[in-house]
What we know:
Helices cover 71% and strands 1% of the residues. The chain has a two-stranded antiparallel ribbon.
Amino acid sequence: MKDEKKLGLMSLILMIFTSVYGFNNIPRSYYLMGYAAIPWFVIAGILFFVPFAFMVAEFGSAFKDETGGMYSWMCKSVGPKYAFIGTFMWYTSYVLWMVNVSSGIWVPVSNLIFGEDCTSGWSFFGSEFLSGSRLLGLMAVVFFAFITYFDSKGVDKISKVTSIGGTAVLTINIMVVVGSILMIIARGGQLQQPFEGLESLKTPLNVAYQGSPIMLLSFIVYALFAYGGIEAVGGLVDKTENPKKNFPKGIVIAAMVIVVGYASLIMLVGSFTNYSEILGNDSITLGNVSYVIMSNFAAEIGKVFGASVATQVSLAHGFARVYALIMLLALMGAMFTLVYSPLKQIIEGTPKELWPGKMGELAEDGMPKNAMWIQCAIVSIMVLMVSFGGDTMQQFFVILTAMVNVGMTVPYMFISFAFPKFKKLNGIDRSFVVFKSQTSANFWGYIVTFTLFFANVFAIIQPALDGDFKTTFWSLSGPVVFGLAAWIIYTRYEKKIERGEVEAEAMEETAAQAE
């Protein structure tokens, strides 16, 4: 096998940034809460993301010679069954994410080509049957097959695409920051959405969130989800140049930039977006709010510098295309990373015999190609089920989003809960340490775990309080079903060992290390 090109510090930071930072989270959060979203992002950053990033850095640095990523971390700290259930639940949440992105990526494509979202009117040569959501579903399947094929060629090509995506996200952030500051200066310090200090930070602009403590507390899951993804690059320690120095440094730098970035840009969105004027009508949804706000950004720049109404409209349409291109690159960058990295961690870190058929086999170049194509088939089936779902499709997307938010944050509890046990291990590399004592490791490990637990409890029960029992049911059933499936798979593996069908060496070794 030829030597693989290693990831430099900047490529690693861009890969983390692309995997974690979602610019869409900013306009969506402003739409849901206004300035009141900022404290929740800061709280989620302090109680979850920063300490969790340090935990990942310690895990990754200590086990840099392990190829199993988070599975290896939890396996050596607690045990193989615990590790597999947590990792499997984490992985399946990304499958749901892939279903969403594969279908939704055509919205920026439409904006790029036409300057607006007209996907609902698309059809295949005038066919009424293959139109709208059904056509998008078929296109999503082709798109995901292309991504899978490209990913199977190796991490070198993936890093190139993710670097493009990361650069694109940085570009849109710089444009919004610079443009917002110029508009603030030109208006003499006035903001389009007045900021009234503590009152603005505690009172949501969205009436749906006013007067409902449970609704407010449920929003923290949006913030937690916005910080998700950093563990996906944890298995790339062995792909990084000078990993002892660069890997933890890359995670820490990216974490700080992301926390500050979310809080600052939510504030800046208010500098050019008056909530009631721009977002106060029923046509605005979580699906199109980002494009509405960014089109308004361009129009406001034209307005503040004296452009005519016609020019403002042209600027809005033009920037919609630019923003669509940037979001397309960013989404593709994240997709290229996350289609490969989660599978790499769970397949390489577990015994081959654990998986049915040839799913656990690696190709000559070390890529889990069989598993990637099985993943492609599962995602494709789910995409087609959603897109051919008829009248219930829109509700299914609401449920799917809720399942992704809950399903992706629940597995993080497995990692944070395992961290105190990891700190008790002897004979491992401690070249990078943030939590200096067992007491601090216990405190932050349990703080992160409880933050995730209570946030998800509020997110699960809130729809039911509003009469939406279906969303509550599916939000809860996602982690339960995936956790049960993982337990069944591993129990089946244990029985194969008991019957002598497979060797128990790997399992005994990991169990012994966990003692």
